[in-house]
Each structure stands twice: as C-alpha cells, then as structure tokens.
Write the structure tokens for this entry.
Amino acid sequence: MKSTQISYILKPEKLNEHILLVQAVFRELHNPASIDMQYACFKTTDNTFVHIAQFGSEAAQKAFTELAAFRAFRKNLSDRILDKPVSENILEIGHYSPTRADAV
C-alpha cells in the first residue's frame, strides 16, 4: 500500500473556504462507490494542513485524483497556501482505527 503525506501552511484568510473544500472531498469519498484507500486530513494551530493518503493500488490513486471534489480542492490551491506543498512517501509502522460513527 502506497502512503503519502502532504503538508502546507494555509493563508489565514482562506481557512473557511479551504475547510469546506476538504470536507467536500470526504463527502464524495463516502459515496457508495468506494475507493481502495484511507485518507485523513489534520490542521495544526499554525494553519499547517497535513494530509495522509494510503492507496491500495495505482488505480485507486487515479480514481481519487479524478473525484470532482478533489479537482475542485486542487483548483487555485496555490492561491490559498503560503508555500508549495511538501509531499513525502511515508512508511506506516502501526495503525489503530476503531469504527467511527462520527466520520465526515
């Protein structure tokens, strides 16, 4: 499974718009046609956003990048962030996730 972490610092005045775009991606992921992936997004107190995506296959990664909500999220991303995003391949050492009824 390929795991990637992407991080960037958001412009403070773009926070609300950006969160709505991220939430739209999660809503689309919850549609019945599931993609073989795990995805999480976190925000730190200094407006750093950290996205962690794990794809079961290249086809899953392609399907994710083709989501309408993800394309909308990527559109004008450079206008919402202070610097270029930093992308790294990461290796999962462990993972725990009980069933979450509160998932977006």
User: Anything to note?
Assistant: The mean pLDDT is 91.
